[in-house]
Design a protein that fits this description.
The structure holds two protein chains of two kinds.
Chain A: H1 2-20, E1 27-30, H2 35-49, E2 55-58, H3 64-73, E3 78-82, H4 83-90, H5 99-108, E4 111-113, E5 123-128, H6 129-135, E6 151-154, H7 155-159, H8 164-171, E7 178-181, H9 183-192, E8 197-201, H10 206-209, E9 212-215, E10 227-232, H11 233-238, H12 240-246, H13 255-266, H14 272-284, H15 295-330, H16 332-347, H17 350-361, H18 365-389, H19 393-401, H20 406-436, H21 449-458, H22 461-489, H23 492-495
Parallel strand pairs in A: 1-2, 6-7, 6-8
Antiparallel strand pairs in A: 3-10, 4-10, 5-8, 5-9
Chain B: E1 2-11, E2 14-24, E3 29-33, H1 40-47, E4 55-60, E5 63-64, H2 70-74, E6 77-80, H3 92-102, H4 107-121, H5 137-149, E7 155-159, H6 167-184, E8 187-192, H7 195-201, E9 204-209, E10 212-217, H8 219-224, H9 229-236
Parallel strand pairs in B: 3-8, 3-9, 6-7, 7-8
Antiparallel strand pairs in B: 1-2, 1-4, 4-5, 9-10
Helix pairs in contact in B: 3-5, 4-5
Classes of the chains: A alpha/beta, B alpha/beta.
């Protein structure tokens, strides 16, 4: 099983690399799954494109861990980061006190850091102005007197070195009603009154929009979060001109400019590419052509990516699961182990599985395909097993008594009789697969998850539907396709009702 | 000639067969009879190697049954079970011809053989393209018999072949089956729990109870010289339809 799996993952990797492989010279810019990071990523990508046409922006790739692993692995060449995040989160296990040490530690990992872009986007704690006023809260230590307040923090903040656990200690905060949620959803929760206190990025456009009070960090808990660019050392070698151009950004983005750009994207609905292009024209006098995407090209692009993920992972799952199901049926002990293992795989949360894959397979379609493949196993293995198990003893023995060897029995009698069950297992896998594949966008695999993620980030229901509706339609199409296939694959004798 | 030598077989904790010695004569019909769960089905499944004895050996024409010769020996036997055991995904014709096809017979040869068998078993040729769910229980047994006979085996093993049929069809099939046995002159082993059927078919009757052979002989032997009171009560337990009329 283990060998089998490893072999298959390698095969899948090979497939993914040859079909989705990119020319080596390409420069890949990454960004995290929040608006500011995507805008910065877009600015970097557009700048790079003035020197080298072959630049790809992998937008909204998830959290810090995903981006950092991808950078280490060379899956991306550069991405925007914050100094506080580097020292408090990425390198939290190292005692880094000054910039010199930081640069040295990064260099050991073949990573270089740009000089600050200028603005400081620190973590902050915020409340609705009216709620804060009512309780008389102006600084974080005031929260101590209000243990009943409900806190809603980003999942990353809940666990970061500089996040909630280390914030509550110095401030001695008593609150127990603290939960993790998505940053963009947190604003909506705050507005609707279902939570009272959230973590903020100080450059968030929403602070003004929702009229929030930013609480004073009176014990100076949060470090500085100067925006910088992290890039691989080898970028300097293979694209020095590109790097030089990108580094023109150093010291060029003041806090107000960043807040305005965030507001343009989040509140006015202007695409990141347009905002980035205007920034470059105004501040660096560089004219760039923002990539224009129509609804149709986006839909086609997402559909192709989604189908790619689903088709490869499902095909591999079918090839592996049917033999595993047959083996489970034939060898009872091994069978129980196989069914147990594929069952356990199914219980791994999909997001966790995707993140586990990154150190092994990097980001993009390869880890997504492997994860989807693993999730597709259980329904097919189990249905193959039950399909074979449900063949009446009399029929099984009649085939044996004829003198047919085991392989011929399987081919001529057992598999045809189990075909309906096997096919319905594949159908279940396919439908689940179409849904789960939307998560692939978190690790840069694209697909219908891309507009869904962007839509959540921008609070744009239209965009969410642009991913959700085609995904639902695709799931229905899959179902229809397999219903048709059933007429071809399942023998006529099994489809007849007795007269 | 089929010989069972000192055969024992235990399922979980119940002993199905206990040190059985039995010789089945060629070209004769041997009927194995006994109460439910006495081990009679076990006996027939041992002969065709569907189960292995815990102890003892099965010989077919002096050849001991082993995993190696199992497939060739099975092809010299035909096996019919209670509800036919037909493959539901194949037409009756495909059911009958499956093994011949597997062995590479050409269509002509298969067609000729099926025509012969239809005549022998009185199966309507126009029902050959139907699926098992589309024909009656009696017809299914005829197809099952054809499937068992396709390779012209030496031996026929029938495990309660008429057990699931209604009386009229059963009566008709008993006659047809006896005619087939008579025409072909094959070695037949048939399992039943019906003493009337046993007497009707059996050149020799083997009575099994609790994994032991209680008596072996003709129906006449069973009536005249029963070796065990249980044999007598088993024979007498069959009710005549006229009984309730007091005749």
């Amino acid at each position: 099983m283990v060998l089998f799996g490893t072999g298959l993952i390698l095969a899948l990797l090979f497939i993914a690399n040859t079909t989705a492989g990119q020319p080596a010279a390409e420069i890949k810019v990454g960004s995290k799954a929040f608006t500011e990071s995507v805008i910065l990523g877009e600015i970097v990508a557009q700048l790079a494109r003035t020197q080298e046409p072959n630049v790809k922006h992998l937008k909204g790739l998830g959290g810090t861990r995903v981006l950092w692993s991808a950078l280490l692995k060379g899956e991306i060449d550069i991405y925007p980061e914050y100094t506080g995040t580097i020292t408090q989160e990425i390198l939290a296990d190292r005692d880094i006190r000054d910039e010199q040490t930081l640069k040295k530690v990064l260099a050991e990992k073949n990573i270089q850091m740009s000089r600050p872009l200028r603005f400081n986007n620190t973590y902050a704690i915020g409340m609705r102005e009216d709620v804060a006023e009512r309780h008389g809260i102006t600084k974080i230590s005031d929260l101590r007197k209000h243990p009943k307040l409900r806190f809603g923090f980003t999942n990353e903040f809940m666990n970061r070195g500089d996040g909630w656990p280390s914030l509550r200690r110095p401030y001695n905060l008593p609150q127990t009603n603290v939960r993790g949620l998505d940053h963009d959803l947190a604003y909506r929760g705050l507005e609707s009154g279902s939570i009272d206190v959230i973590d903020l990025y100080s450059t968030d456009a929403e602070i003004r929009y929702y009229k929030l009070r930013v609480l004073d960090d009176d014990l100076h808990h949060f470090p500085e979060y100067n925006a910088v660019l992290l890039y691989r050392l080898d970028l300097m070698e293979h694209a020095p001109d590109v790097l030089k151009t990108i580094l023109k950004l150093e010291g060029r983005i003041p806090e107000k400019t960043m807040i305005d750009m965030n507001a343009e994207v989040k509140l006015d609905g202007i695409p990141e590419s347009v905002v980035a292009s205007e920034f470059l024209k105004k501040n660096l006098s560089i004219t760039t052509e923002p990539k224009k995407e129509t609804f149709l090209t986006r839909l086609v692009h997402n559909t192709l990516q989604h189908l790619f993920l689903v088709a490869i992972s499902l095909a591999a799952a079918i090839l592996i699961s049917i033999p595993l199901g047959i083996l489970s049926h034939r060898k009872e002990k091994i069978g129980q182990a196989i069914l147990g293992i594929v069952g356990i795989i199914q219980t791994i949360p999909s997001l966790a599985l995707l993140v586990f894959m990154i150190p092994l397979l990097g980001i993009g379609s390869a880890p997504a395909i492997v994860a989807l493949f693993l999730y597709s196993l259980l329904p097919i293995v189990r249905n193959t097993y039950t399909g074979l198990q449900d063949i009446p003893v009399g029929i099984r023995e009649s085939a044996e008594a004829l003198g047919l060897p085991s392989g011929a029995r399987l081919r001529l009698v057992e598999l045809p009789m189990a075909s309906r069950s096997i096919l319905s297992g594949i159908k279940t896998s396919a439908v689940i697969n179409v849904g789960t594949a939307t998560l692939g966008a978190l690790i840069g695999a694209g697909g219908y998850g891309q507009p869904i993620l962007t839509g959540i980030r921008l609070d744009n229901v239209g965009l969410i539907l642009e991913g959700a509706i085609p995904a639902a339609v695709l799931a229905l199409l899959m179902q229809g396709l397999f219903d048709l296939l059933e007429r071809v694959v399942v023998p006529k004798g099994l489809r007849l009702k007795s007269e | 000639m089929i010989k069972l030598e000192n055969i024992s077989k235990t399922y979980a904790s119940t002993r199905a067969l206990d040190s059985i010695n039995l010789t089945i004569l060629p070209h004769k019909t041997t009927v194995v009879i006994g109460p439910s769960g006495c081990g009679k089905s076990t006996l027939i499944r041992l002969i065709i190697g569907l189960i292995k004895p815990d102890k003892g050996n099965v010989y077919v024409k002096d050849e001991m049954l082993t995993p190696i010769n199992l497939f060739t020996i099975r092809r010299r036997m035909g096996y019919v079970i209670q509800d036919g055991g037909l493959f539901p995904h194949l037409t009756t014709k495909e059911n009958v011809s499956l093994m011949a096809k597997y062995l590479g017979w050409d269509n002509d040869r298969i067609g000729k053989r099926i025509a012969e068998l239809c005549e022998l078993t009185k199966f309507p040729v126009d029902a050959l393209d139907r699926y098992p769910v589309q024909i009656s229980g009696g017809q299914r047994q005829r197809v099952s018999l054809m499937r068992a006979l396709i390779l012209d085996p030496d031996t026929l093993l029938l495990d309660e072949p008429l057990g699931a049929l209604d009386p009229l069809i059963r009566f008709e099939l008993q006659n047809d089956l006896k005619e087939v046995f008579h025409t072909l002159g094959k070695t037949v082993v048939m399992v039943t729990h019906d003493i009337g059927e046993a007497g009707f078919f059996g050149d020799s009757i083997v009575f099994i109870r609790d994994g032991h052979i209680v008596q072996q002989g003709t129906l006449m032997d069973f009536v005249r010289t029963p070796t065990d009171p249980f044999v007598t009560s088993f024979i007498n337990a069959q009710r005549s339809p006229l009984e309730s009329l007091g005749e």
